[in-house]
Design a protein that fits this description.
heterodimer, A: 339 residues, mainly alpha, globular, B: 290 residues, 70% helix
Chain lengths: 339, 290
């Protein structure tokens, strides 16, 4: 198992390294002079030339990349044009909000999709199954930003159930920052009103992000359950008189969840990507909204950093997914051990 | 040389039967056909063709849906239905341009990587594909668009640059296993060139999954294009793009909901149509690959 993790990790490092070259090349080779962009169109030419020297922009590309890696390793990602601070400072400030949002969405996907899919598969072709099938067809097709806007309209404005903007209401005093997750921080400081307020603010964007993956995963779990129900080992378990609940939860669930978990890597990808749109709609002060602002202002240092962070989150999520699949599916573990 | 394996031509009636067994596929085909027809004939069937571009009529602005404007009018007094109809053109153009760039490139790379499995060529192609897939396509497409000047054309190029690895991976997984099938080996023993084996022996057996993926992807490419312009990094006003319309209209929520909600719902309709159609295409090829 440890060689499996080690192999996986080293390949991830390779891929992230490749990604950093790719995004660096995109930021440097495509038209547009970073120094000119940084100083604005009205800056004098000598100032631009000075900055070019300072940023090593006159050196060959691979040397520029070397400088960038050296700085990045020591935690300096360059100055952001949006906030005029080091990008690292911005990342540390905005990243937790996004992580909190994505984590909540991922939890919602697991908690809602698996039971719905299991039940629909167990009661195949019942009215419940049919409702789930129709809803999941539509759910997969509705983009997260459309869900976000419809939720905003219906729950935020018309029914006025949930607040729709930001992470906390202005009247609530934010808890002292420990983890950056407002829910956890408010629990640590025992500030229940803040905890409640943070949860309420998370619900709409969290659900908007999660809806597509929930529909997708419920469908996959359902078909996987139906497929496994026809297998011989289930028949023999039934004929041994194993009670239905035990059958479902112990014998049926584990193999049925393998495809579900395998697809979760793609879900995380869609959560990360859609966060860029949903954070914009709900004015969520996260790294994705920061990234969009950076992109609209051609803030190259910040763009490179945000893309790399998206890649790192995605890579970590994929490793976790692989480990869970290896846990669920003994065949994978044996193959890895034999190799 | 003569072809070693005799292949039947496609049996369209049989395929149609398999396709239409699931009536939802037919619904999908209907939706896609409707969108395509509306897009092509938009200048002739749209109620107010002049409203597609620069057009201002402030007395008529912000009108809720009524008999003259079924989907209402936007902040400049333009008919929302008209702009949606013209928006279909940009959406479909996005899908057609991106897929026609991406599919040939991705498929050829996948075929070559699969054929030369275990070689340096395979390693380079597949590692490159992994790197491009290391970040969600939307994120990298956003950053490419941000470095370039935002426009419909640049959005298409950015999405194309991101999308090829999916086809490379798909085709690679099929072709690397077909490489060891008897009919490919037979062709090799008979002295066929690599070109012949890749394009005449292996490629025809990949067409089903490729076509299925293309149909499903058309919807997702349209979505990513709409997402880019939603953020402001794709089509620029006054281009009637569905994503731009949703984001422009969002600032008039909740009172003037029709400006953003109708374009948003049509995006859903397009994706749903391509998804249902894609399922039908998959059913059509399902039995053949067994």
């Amino acid at each position: 198992m440890s060689t499996f993790i080690l192999k996986r990790l080293s390949y991830t490092v390779f891929v992230l390294f490749g990604l950093s070259i790719l995004i660096f090349v995109i930021a440097r080779v495509l038209p547009g002079d970073p120094a000119r962009l940084a100083l604005g169109p009205r800056a004098p030419d000598w100032a631009v030339e000075n900055l070019r020297q300072q940023l090593h922009l006159n050196e060959p590309l691979y040397i520029q990349y070397f400088y960038w890696v050296r700085d990045a390793v020591s935690g300096r990602l360059g100055e952001s044009l949006v906030t005029r601070r080091d990008v690292m400072t911005d990342v540390l400030e905005f990243l937790p909000a996004t992580l909190e949002l994505i984590t909540l969405s991922a939890i919602l996907v697991v908690v809602l999709a698996i039971p719905i899919g299991m039940l629909a598969g167990r009661r195949a072709n019942s009215w419940f199954d049919n409702v789930v099938r129709v809803l999941s067809y539509v759910g997969v097709a509705v983009p997260a930003f459309v869900v976000a806007i419809i939720f905003l309209l219906v729950f935020g404005f018309m029914l006025n159930i949930a607040p729709s903007i930001g992470r906390l209401s202005p009247s609530i005093v934010a808890p002292p920052t420990v983890t950056g997750f407002l829910t956890i921080d408010s629990l640590i400081s025992g500030n229940m009103p803040a905890f409640y307020d943070a949860i309420v603010h998370l619900i709409l964007p969290g659900l908007a992000l999660a809806l597509g993956p929930i529909a997708q995963e419920a469908r996959i779990t359902r078909s996987s359950v139906v497929e496994n129900l026809n297998k011989d080992y289930i028949l023999s378990t039934v004929s041994h008189g194993v009670p239905e609940r035990l059958l479902t939860l112990k014998y049926l669930m584990r193999p049925s969840l393998i495809p579900t978990v395998s697809v979760m890597g793609l879900d995380i990808s869609s959560l990360i990507a859609n966060a860029f749109l949903v954070e914009l709609i709900y004015n969520w002060p996260g790294i994705s909204r920061y990234g969009i602002t950076a992109m609209l202002r051609k803030d190259l240092n910040a763009i490179v950093a945000v893309v790399m962070i998206a890649g790192i989150i995605f890579a970590i999520a994929n490793i976790v997914v692989d480990l869970i699949v290896a846990y669920l599916d003994p065949r994978i573990r044996y193959v890895e051990r034999a190799a | 040389m003569k072809q070693a394996v005799i292949r039947k031509g496609p049996d369209f009636r049989k395929s149609w039967h398999k396709f239409s067994k699931n009536y939802l596929s037919a619904v999908g085909l209907g939706v896609v056909a409707l969108v395509a027809v509306v897009a092509i004939f938009a200048p002739y069937i749209a109620p107010y063709p002049t409203h597609a571009g620069f057009f201002v009529d402030y007395p008529e602005a912000h009108e809720s849906p009524n008999w003259l404007h079924i989907f209402g009018t936007d902040q400049f007094g333009r008919d929302v239905l008209t702009r949606i109809m013209f928006g279909f053109r940009y959406s479909l153009m996005m899908a057609v341009v991106v897929l026609s760039l991406v599919v040939p490139a991705g498929v050829v790379l996948g075929l070559v990587a699969g054929y030369y499995k275990g070689s340096k060529v395979e390693m380079v192609i597949m590692r490159a594909a992994d790197i491009f897939l290391a970040v969600p396509p939307l994120v990298l497409a956003l950053s490419i668009c941000s470095v370039l000047t935002p426009s419909v054309f640049n959005a298409m190029m950015a999405v194309s640059l991101m999308w090829w690895p999916w086809y490379t991976r798909l085709v690679y997984s099929i072709s690397s296993s077909l490489r060891n099938e008897a009919f490919v080996q037979a062709a090799e023993i008979a002295g066929a060139s690599p070109f012949h084996m890749i394009f005449r022996e292996i490629l025809p057996n990949c067409l089903g999954p490729i076509l299925t993926k293309m149909t499903l992807d058309a919807g997702w490419v349209i979505l990513i294009g709409a997402s880019l312009s939603f953020v402001g990094l794709g089509a620029q006003p006054p281009t009637p793009d569905l994503g731009t319309m949703v984001s422009d209209g969002a600032s008039f929520l909740p009172e003037q909901w029709w400006i953003s909600i109708f374009p948003a719902l049509t995006i859903v309709l397009i994706i749903l149509g391509f998804n249902l159609l894609g399922d039908g295409v998959r059913d059509m090829f399902a039995a053949e690959s067994v």
